[in-house]
Design a protein that fits this description.
about 725 residues, alpha+beta, five-stranded antiparallel sheet, 24 helices, 11 strands, about 5% strand, elongated, disordered C terminus
Length: about 725
């Protein structure tokens, strides 16, 4: 592989005009496709195999005009201070609004608050339920505009009016913190390279890669049913890995220049060595992201595949466009150790300063001398951070987790104030009595049994279909939708339904957004262990090929699990317990997003393996060439610690930039990934890994002979490049100049 990538790097360096033209053409093509594509909505939570989805499908069959998956909206009215919604003037405003809402072409029905008894007991709050024929994804913008306009007219007439439901979807806003994250990345790159031009190359290629990836996602959004969150997460991961991969290759290029190689040869060797690590690191990320498909949740699968595609683009750009841009830069990208004149370069370094070991060398030497103490401190620290994870509660965000600045959140609060906290998450029961002798008696029995359960506020009378064999019953809990109490009620209803089925042959199903969220959480929990086995197992085998060792990949996997548990503990402390919630902009604490653990496992595992590959390959390279195990650890840190540290800081900055998002899911993922990178890079890879390798000694690199013969030799250390020959004398003079 190293030889092939070496030739690819030299080819891209020589044919830089052609390479640059290809990538610019791809960016333009993707941009045109995105510009002409319709705006992406939020992808649905359709989950095959769950009871909630089965109930939705049954509703489609037995209630054909019901549009069970159609968009809904609740227009909530509040009377001015001292007035009631039943006052004649306020009632006239509401009735006019209901009439205006009924005129919409996609509107299925509008429930008048006064006829539907949708007025609070104190008379201050009322709501009108609007149902649409199409889902929120398919709802036309004109329908949303009509909804907003009708609410605005009522508000102008003197009422407080807010809109909840999925008919209006809040567009995620990342805020200025994303720009700050990129600015931090730029500063770190300048400090690392000592050159503005060298620092700009990783940023430029990362932005181009993300531009192609996100534009492609936008262009295909309508066809593949991709939500807006998909492109946000793809840009988050694509930026982080794109900058990191380019950083490693540019850093290796400058190191090759420092050894006196010609620029073309240095570009080839950088791609052949660091590029090999980029390929395998990118492959682990892609495996982890595509592996999310085993969960069998369409939304998560699409997010994983889209992000994996962006990572693949980042790898290709790092291998081809970086050497091409280095060819354009010429002598303006200097060998490692030299700074540009603008940043103080050109000054002679004293012999004492030149001979002084760098910080990575000093730290690695300390760890090798005190491996037990460093190992214990790292493991105990991460273990303490992981303690809150034992209290992990899973759920999905609803309007109650939206910022208070949104109309959805204000509508949620008004409904809770007027009708109780459970009113925002009613449970829809579907009773299939087709196999029963007396369906009407079954409907009555089900309603009576549900009323006896703890946690029930109200139960509506059964509403049969035209055939009379199926009915819907709405159950309003006395707790908010995302609470554990509501989840327990759903399980209690299903247990009751199982008993009723045994007695009457009638099937009782629970659905609705709240029940769907509970089913998603359960599906995530059930899939976590198989996903871990698949992803960690495949990556373990891949790392055995890379490092030709059994214990090094095993140590890498165990260290990753420790860092993920610690990161989950931090997420629980902030988003569930409320620690530092004000600093993070968390307005409402509650359960952790149900897809967070499995998504964090997928993404962080891939990113963690980046640092493992980049750092440990340098150690293996030194060990293979005759150094003792302890000295190989120090050598690996001397060459790789500075770059890995910069890469981790950049990745943390990019992820942390998404904490400013108005979308609670994006905010939580941004924080979780940023803190996970911190734990994994600075505690696991920088402390625990060298300590373990120092304790294992030569055993760390042991591999059975039969397995060594069976495994393919991928030559990630670039051993074959040592036969390529050094640079010509005139090239050496050109480099020194």
């Amino acid at each position: 592989m190293a030889t092939f990538l070496y030739k690819l790097g030299r080819l891209a360096f020589r044919r830089r005009h052609f390479v640059a033209l290809i990538w610019v053409a791809l960016l333009t093509l993707a941009g045109v496709g995105a510009a002409s594509a319709p705006t992406a909505g939020n992808t649905s939570f359709s989950i095959p195999g769950t009871e909630a989805q089965k109930a939705f499908d049954l509703l489609e069959q037995r209630f054909p005009g019901m549009s069970a998956d159609g968009a809904t909206a609740r227009v909530v009215f509040k009377a001015p201070e001292g007035e009631k919604m039943t006052d004649a003037a306020n009632k006239a405003i509401v009735e006019k609004t209901v009439g205006d809402l009924s005129d919409g072409s996609e509107v299925s029905s509008v429930a008048d608050p006064y006829k539907a008894k949708a007025v609070s007991e104190d008379g201050t709050i009322a709501y009108a339920s609007v149902k649409y024929d199409v889902s929120g994804m398919e709802l036309e913008e004109s329908s949303r505009d009509s909804l907003k306009e009708a609410a605005k007219e009522a508000q102008d007439a003197g009422l407080t009016v807010e809109i909840g439901g999925d008919a209006l979807q809040a567009t995620p806003e990342t805020g200025t913190t994303e720009i700050i994250g990129l600015a931090v990345a730029a500063v770190v790159l300048v400090i690392t390279f000592g050159s503005l031009l060298a620092a700009g190359l990783p940023l430029l290629t990362a932005v181009i890669g993300v531009g192609i990836g996100v534009s492609s996602i936008t262009a295909l959004a309508a066809t593949l049913d991709l939500g807006s969150t998909t492109s946000t997460l793809a840009s988050m991961i694509g930026l982080a890995v794109g900058i990191d991969y380019a950083l490693f290759i540019v850093s290796r290029y400058r190191g090759e220049l420092a050894e006196g190689r010609s620029r073309e040869d240095a570009a080839g060797r950088a791609v052949g060595t660091a590029g090999s690590a980029v390929v395998f690191a990118g492959l682990t990320v892609v495996i982890a992201l595509v592996g999310l498909s085993v969960v069998n949740i369409p939304m998560l699968t699409k997010m994983g595949v889209a992000a994996a595609g962006t990572v693949a683009i980042a790898v290709l750009i790092a291998l081809t466009m970086i050497p091409a841009l280095l060819g354009y830069a010429g002598r303006r990208v200097r060998p490692s150790g030299e700074k540009s004149k603008l940043l103080g370069g050109g000054r002679p370094r004293s012999a004492e300063k030149a001979a002084k070991p760098n910080m990575g060398t000093r730290w690695a030497s300390f760890v090798v001398r005190r491996p037990v103490a460093v190992l214990l401190l790292g493991v105990i620290g991460l273990g303490a951070a992981a303690v809150p994870a034992a209290s992990l509660e899973l759920g999905l965000p609803d309007d109650g987790s939206q910022p208070t600045s949104t109309t959805q959140r204000r509508a949620y609060d008004l409904l809770s104030e007027g009708f109780g906290p459970g009113f925002n998450g009613p449970l829809l029961m579907v009773v299939d009595a087709k196999a029963s002798d007396d369906p009407q008696a079954v409907f009555t029995e089900v309603g009576d049994e549900i009323k006896k359960l703890d946690g029930v506020d109200t139960v509506t009378p059964a509403a049969p279909n035209k055939a009379g064999d199926t009915a819907t019953i709405t159950v309003v809990p006395d707790s908010k939708p995302s609470s554990v109490t509501t989840e327990n009620l759903v399980h209690a209803i299903r247990d009751t339904g199982a008993r009723i089925k045994a007695d009457t042959d009638a099937e009782v199903l629970v659905t609705g957004s709240t029940a769907m969220n509970i089913d998603i959480s359960q599906k995530m929990n059930d899939a976590l262990v198989p996903y871990l086995i698949l992803v960690v197992g495949l990556a373990f085998l891949l790392l055995i090929v890379v490092f030709r060792s059994i214990l090094v990949p095993l140590k890498a996997a165990l260290g990753f699990l420790l860092s993920v548990l610690a990161a989950l503990g931090a997420v629980v402390a902030v988003f569930q317990w409320g620690w530092l919630s004000g600093l993070m902009g968390v307005e409402e604490t509650g359960p952790v997003m149900s897809m967070m653990p499995i998504f964090m496992v997928g993404v962080v595992f891939g990113l963690a393996m980046d640092y493992e590959v980049f750092l440990v390959t340098r150690m293996r390279e030194a060990y293979v060439h005759g150094e003792s195990p302890g000295q190989a650890v120090v050598t690996g840190f001397r060459h790789g610690a500075r770059v890995v540290t910069a890469a981790a800081v950049i990745m943390m900055a990019v992820f942390a930039g998404f904490i400013g998002s108005s979308e609670s899911m994006v905010k939580m993922i941004g924080f979780g990934l940023a803190i996970a990178v911190f734990f994994d890079a600075f505690v696991v890879r920088m402390a625990i890994v060298p300590a373990v390798l120092a304790l294992l000694g030569k055993k760390a690199w042991w591999l059975p002979r039969w397995l060594d013969r069976a495994l393919p030799n991928v030559d990630i250390e670039g051993e074959a490049l040592r036969t390529q020959g050094g640079p010509k004398d005139e090239d050496r003079e050109l480099v020194r100049a």
